Amino acid sequence: MSQAKPLRSSSTGALKGTIRVPGDKSISHRSLMLGAVAVGETVIHGLLEGEDVLHTAAAMRLLGAQAERDADGVWRVRGVGLGALAEPAQVLDMGNSGTAARLLMGLVAAHPITCVFTGDASLNKRPMARVTTPLAQMGARFVGRSGGRLPLTVVGGESMIPITYRLPVASAQVKSAIILAGLNTPGATTVIETEPTRDHTELMLRHFGATVTTERLEDGALAVTVVGQPELTGRTIHVPSDPSSAAFPAVAALLRPGSEVLLNDVGMNPRRTGLFDTLVEMGGDIAFENRRDQAGEPVADLRIRHSRLKGVVVPADRAPSMIDEYPVLAAAAACAEGTTVMLGLKELRVKESDRLAMVAEGLTRCGVSVEVGADDSLIVHGTGSAPKGGATVATAMDHRIAMSFLVLGTASAEPVQVDDGAFIETSFPGFVALMNGLGATIDEV
Ligand code: S3P
């Protein structure tokens, strides 16, 4: 990552316009990985060209696949076929991306190759035992730093064993890592999740020709089973725009009087839309127009108008469907009337930064009254109008912390500065230009 890039966001007038935010990050990673182990060509329209996904593309090339971008922005992946990933001659650098690291560790674990994974200072702090524990049960071996952290070496299993594994944390990354290992394992591999997490891996695997079934168990949990060693065939994929990126202009438009913004082609997978449900409960005027299906994923155009928001209680069981959106929800809550209580946020502590701590610290600096509960809840006492702002907020290499506080700055009495906006490039290239095009005032400092 390049040098730190401080950014300042100042109070602005109405936000107006129609935009398409970049492609979905989760779907983009998966399309490159599955394209690489399919037979034939996978054509990807709308791939997110953020740094996280570009790290995945580079890794797939080191593993033997071809992944190139056409002049018209379409990506073409020529796969090697399942089981045929090559041992990379170099370290796989996953940059800032937990998704890239964890999913790829699952995929290579079931190939008879040795791979060394590393990442940036943020990724190398994040827990990996959550994936290495089940993958080791299947037959792969790992040598990492304490806590299973990167840099870490994966020695893929020669004869992998299918397992049934109940997830100890609600994590689509862990679920996906096991499913991707199960893909090249003979027999049926099952992951049981008590809380439904995003199912892009399951949906896309079916699209590529694999058999993936989902069964509800007596205790209400979901059992996801993949039948190993299918023939995967290259496909065409249209990546919807990322609801987690749409969240930023959406909240900014809700907060600025007179705003009306149309966000086109936003992914509406129900396991991703918890933020929009919450904003509607808070009184947000969000219309879901032109609902349709795009290559197996639901999408809609979102029309968002300024609204007076009020505080709500966000239940813990909603967390998996909006896990990346709490920082920007906290910005909305800071401007809402009354108190917003967000429950069950333990997982926020192990994201690109400790988001619970970073949000609480940043909001406090901006003059907002916040409490973090011992149960990892976040309580934000809304100002009902513009928060004070007038502070520089630390972002700890976290793109979503940076964007959330820049959104807060659009609605604060005094500008909000973030110490480093460079990491926004990991997930939302063009964020500042897109926001300023709608009428925001975000400047390099
Ligand atoms: C992702 C899953 C989530 C999310 C991350 C992307 C994915 O992580 O925070 O940004 O693409 O599977 P967890 O599943 O570990 O919560």
Automatic annotation (TrEMBL):
InterPro entries: Enolpyruvate_Tfrase_dom, Enolpyruvate_Tfrase_sf, EPSP_synthase, EPSP_synthase_CS, RNA3'P_cycl/enolpyr_Trfase_a/b. The keyword Transferase applies. Keywords: Amino-acid biosynthesis, Aromatic amino acid biosynthesis, Cytoplasm, Transferase. CDD domains: EPSP_synthase. Phosphoenolpyruvate binds at K25, G98, R126, Q173, R355, R400. Gene3D superfamilies: Enolpyruvate transferase domain (3.65.10.10). It is found in: Cytoplasm. PROSITE patterns: EPSP_SYNTHASE_1. Pfam families: EPSP_synthase. GO terms for biological process: amino acid biosynthetic process; aromatic amino acid family biosynthetic process; chorismate biosynthetic process. It is an enzyme of class 2 (transferase). Its EC number is 2.5.1.19. It catalyses: 3-phosphoshikimate + phosphoenolpyruvate = 5-O-(1-carboxyvinyl)-3-phosphoshikimate + phosphate. One of its GO terms (cellular component) is cytoplasm. Catalyzes the transfer of the enolpyruvyl moiety of phosphoenolpyruvate (PEP) to the 5-hydroxyl of shikimate-3-phosphate (S3P) to produce enolpyruvyl shikimate-3-phosphate and inorganic phosphate. This is 3-phosphoshikimate 1-carboxyvinyltransferase. It comes from Azospirillum doebereinerae. The gene is aroA.
